[in-house]
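Hello again, I could really use a second opinion on something today. I've dropped the whole record in just underneath, so have a look.
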Amino acid sequence: MNYTLTKPCDACPFLKINAESYGLRRLRQFASGEFVCHKTAELNEETLEFEAKKNGSVHCAGALIFLEKRDQPTQMMRICERIGLYDRTKLDMNAPVI
């Protein structure tokens, strides 16, 4: 999974305008692990859930911003940051993320 997105798309569940549809509890579940951007995911027909593609999936920028705003980055975020695969300073922290 790549950590290269820096701002959420217009359909991101973490945007304030979309978040109410999901609720804070569900958003916390989404952000608790690697949460692939739906635009770079494949829909699993059996579970009806989005899953990372084998190659080329990107972590949701909204989820990254959501976690960084709360100073609650996942362990994988910090590992990727240490090895140069993720740079939190490039995130658009002014994006309207809940």
Observations:
- The mean pLDDT is 91.
- The longest strand covers residues 41-44.
- Residues 61-69 form the longest helix (9 residues).
- Helices lie at 16-22, 24-31, 61-69, 75-82.
